[in-house]
TrEMBL record:
Coiled coil: none annotated. Its EC number is 3.6.1.8. This is Nucleoside triphosphate pyrophosphohydrolase. Belongs to the nucleoside triphosphate pyrophosphohydrolase family. Transmembrane segments: none annotated. The lineage of its organism: Bacteria, Pseudomonadati, Pseudomonadota, Alphaproteobacteria, Rhodobacterales. It comes from Allosediminivita pacifica.
């Protein structure tokens, strides 16, 4: 038992890995940690990644250190479960990503010139990744796009892959026409299953529109969520000044307060 390392405030990665090993020890560890699997931990991993993104979005730099630590712990957790199962260990994980970064940056770690445009570096990057996919026997254009990605992000990645082989609208106006077509089909849908399908088609085309406009749809939607939260908070605050709650007011009243909040935001620039 390495209690000296466990309690060393400057123990760094060795300390964190020892803590994880102790938590998973079948005899003396934490029952909850012992019974976890890759599948049961995966949702927490995704959640921690979003909390990192949230701290960055809010520029909450004081929180970012802790959120990055939470995300790092998820990697350590998965690596420990893999080691317990005899699959690989944390050093294998670190070496794999190090090897990948060296291979993908020959202009930094190899003998290729750094005198390249961003566009050329992007093309070179895609060439290297294509070779990696071939080595994994991923033959289809869309093979290897992770299923666990947020749906909008995965839609954009799928569309980018298809665009590389020419399956794409050349003009943004054509995408806008497709948006209108999908909206019309959604209006005509009658049963729930058909409506859900058409709504999915509309979201997929909206993701494509974002790609053509050089907009990250996840970022755009997060910003819209923040704006909605901020403005609805202003509605609640205005009602609270009257000693009221949103549930005690009408839609017309709340809509008027919403418009007032919107005007105030625009006036303040």
């Amino acid at each position: 038992m390495r209690d000296d390392l466990i309690h060393d405030p400057k123990g760094g990665m060795p300390r964190l890995r020892e803590i994880m090993r102790r938590l998973r020890d079948p005899q003396t560890g934490c029952p909850w940690d012992i019974e976890q699997t890759f599948a049961s931990i995966a949702p927490y991993t995704i959640e921690e990644a979003y909390e990192v993104a949230d701290a960055i979005e809010r520029e909450a730099w004081g929180e970012l250190k802790g959120e990055l630590g939470d995300l790092l712990f998820q990697s350590v957790f998965h690596a420990q479960m893999a080691e317990d199962a005899g699959l690989f260990n944390f050093d294998d994980v670190a070496n794999a990503i190090a090897d990948k970064m060296v291979a993908r940056h020959p202009h930094v770690f190899g003998d290729e010139s750094r005198d390249k445009s961003a566009e050329q570096q992007t093309r070179d990057w895609e060439t290297v990744k294509a070779a990696e996919r071939a080595a994994k026997d991923e033959k289809g254009v869309l093979d290897g796009v992770a299923l666990g990605l947020p749906a909008l992000t995965r839609a954009v990645k799928l569309q980018n892959r298809a665009a590389r082989v020419g399956f794409d609208w050349p003009q943004t106006d054509q995408v806008l026409d497709k948006v209108a077509e999908e909206m019309a089909e959604l209006r005509e849908a009658t049963d729930p299953a058909h409506r859900a399908e058409e709504f999915g088609d509309l979201l997929f085309v909206m993701a494509n529109l974002a790609r053509h406009l050089d907009i990250d749809p996840e970022d755009a939607l997060r910003a819209a969520n923040l704006k909605f939260t901020r403005r609805f908070g202003a509605v609640e605050a205005a009602l609270a000044e009257q000693g009221r709650h949103p549930k005690d007011s009408t839609l017309e009243e709340m809509d008027a307060l919403w418009d007032a909040a919107k005007r105030t935001e625009k006036a303040s620039g």
